[in-house]
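Hi W.,

Here's what went into the run:
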Amino acid sequence: MLIVQKYGGTSVANIERIKKVAERVIKYKKEGHDLVVVVSAMAGETDRLINLAKEITPNPPLRELDLLVSTGEQVTSALLAITLQSMGFDSVAFLGYQIPIYTTNLFTKAKIKEIKVDKIKKELNQGKIVVVAGFQGVTEEGDITTLGRGGSDTTAVALAAALKADLCEIYTDVEGVYTADPRVVSNARKLKKISYEEMLEMASSGAKVLEMRSVELAMIYKVNLVVKSSFTEAEGTLITEEDEEMEKVLVSGITYSRNEARISIYGVPDKPGIAAQIFSPIGEKGIIVDMIIQTVHPDNKADITFTVPRTDYSQALEIVKEVAKKLKAERVEGDDKIAKVSIVGAGMRTHSGVATKMFETLAKHGINIMMISTSEIKISCVIDEKYTELAVRALHEAFQLDQENIKEEKTFIKRPKKTK
Amino acid sequence: MLIVQKYGGTSVANIERIKKVAERVIKYKKEGHDLVVVVSAMAGETDRLINLAKEITPNPPLRELDLLVSTGEQVTSALLAITLQSMGFDSVAFLGYQIPIYTTNLFTKAKIKEIKVDKIKKELNQGKIVVVAGFQGVTEEGDITTLGRGGSDTTAVALAAALKADLCEIYTDVEGVYTADPRVVSNARKLKKISYEEMLEMASSGAKVLEMRSVELAMIYKVNLVVKSSFTEAEGTLITEEDEEMEKVLVSGITYSRNEARISIYGVPDKPGIAAQIFSPIGEKGIIVDMIIQTVHPDNKADITFTVPRTDYSQALEIVKEVAKKLKAERVEGDDKIAKVSIVGAGMRTHSGVATKMFETLAKHGINIMMISTSEIKISCVIDEKYTELAVRALHEAFQLDQENIKEEKTFIKRPKKTK
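Here's what came out:
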């Protein structure tokens, strides 16, 4: 098999840990696999470099910032290749520009455009273990770029796609994807398998194990992605295409996010174009609106409630107050002490009654639902922040997520599968 | 003017100092000069990186070692460009591979083969200050190399040559080239000007201010080289082609080296091929022999004395003892407590009496001369190590090097100048 492995910052935090990584890589090599190993910067190194730049100026020029920060992964890739060679295994380290991994020239958050795999294939054919510095690429002009948050995961998935690898393993400090955050739900269960769509919904609704971008990339190129721990031998979670078995699982996981805030504007005239007048100035400031609910009253007035990232809350509130004056709205209210709790499961497509069960469960615990939004395989409720843990635990129990049972409910109806 | 400036590790040791460097660069820029600035790694960083590799294995693979170590200069170049931009001066940082600076593939001690200057010229024409990571280059295959000891000086001189710069300034932690080590001779005088040949002889005989390689390069390409301090505004020393004025200076400087050891082999049969039998096995071990003296006795036996680097002393002594047995030599003696004291001056070519004055001065202070070697512009004496400082001070005084007088001695004879 051709396996792409990616090791995060905590897995390569010091020489001792890099040796452990090398031992693991060698174990796979000895089993006869071809290996491409993507590494992050040693834990803390990226922050150290960014802080050096910030010591000079709060807004360092982005081209030079990328030149600076990309050294973190360069150091780790060299150290891992040195370690592998010192253990008797032929290895070669490559930087983004050497492969090359071509990206757009949007420094600090570049997108991969093309990966040339000839160089890597040549080294693999010679029996070498190929180590690649993650997070970095190069523009056509030869400038070094970085890929933004979760960039090394993206490097690994993109390489796996370009090389048509059999497997892409993301090694991190957790053992996989859980039915809920194990710090909140003590009997949260590690999932053996989850679909790309479910993982995407979980990532977008608060699960931190993977960035959405690398999951999207894996989904597009059908890369079999495994999340596992570099500190244990546990099996990890496979993220792959949805299959029959997954569809039978009603709910795969519960996620939560405390990164949002709610803004409500009451009593605006219910005329066409009102929403645009409210959301255009917010969008212009680069603030992303997540959920929107509009209620129309008999008196032709409407209430609009929406959520924004908590970090943008005060700015968004200012803007809305301005707009409210112009629109002669009755009043504006805001709340940044909210949480979003979501349930995600591919089985929702073919099962009914999931939403009802969620609402009933929250109600039973006296938790008021402020807003609801749904997708095909997700239901999210906005609640008072103080009930977050209670809600997650109650839902985890209600859907019996600590057990691996596949639900075959009475209401099961097989619907034709959608092509996406 | 087009000026290439190079700042060493202590000059860029932290953000505060990098800001000072930026201020100096900007001062020149404001005077209307075009600037290319070469930087070393922050003081201590190269050692930190090498130690990481040595923590893994005492003999790290050299390709990956270069990949690792070259990040030091990459970080500094990015930080300086960020600083210049934060001060309002357009700037761009380039790595070796981006220019590119092509080198041989002899990792850790690569030699520059070719520098493409188009990219730098283009940026200079746009009014930008160009910052270049020193010490590094790239092979034609795209592998990162480093240039060995004094590598950033070499980068600066090579860039100055390729760009046909008017001046190449090497900023360091001393104010220039002195008539003798100021730590030994309190009234040592800073030289305003010195010829390439003199500087080469001084570097080869113990002066540490510049590596021989960058002086050689400057000499070949006639690069006007200035050594000066980045911590003061003092003028520095210009290293340039020999002129009439320099020829009139009898002695420019006194140097010393304690890095050598002496080995003597007594009573070997004086037959052809003897020297080869002694020096071949030493050369095979990569040990460099500096001075050699052979004395022939009436009984057809010879004594041979030579010097080797002190670090190779015990190994060389073992080899010579082996050879001595085969040759039936009378005995072998060694001494690693020696020093080499040298006087250097372009004026020696046209003046006589310099050697005599040196020997008399040493004799007057009771210092025994063990070995003598001379070149056109240098005389070196090997003496007992304990007399090092005394010898340097005595010679400095005897040749009145604390004074800037140009000697017009009675014995002055103008000889035709040699073409080299």
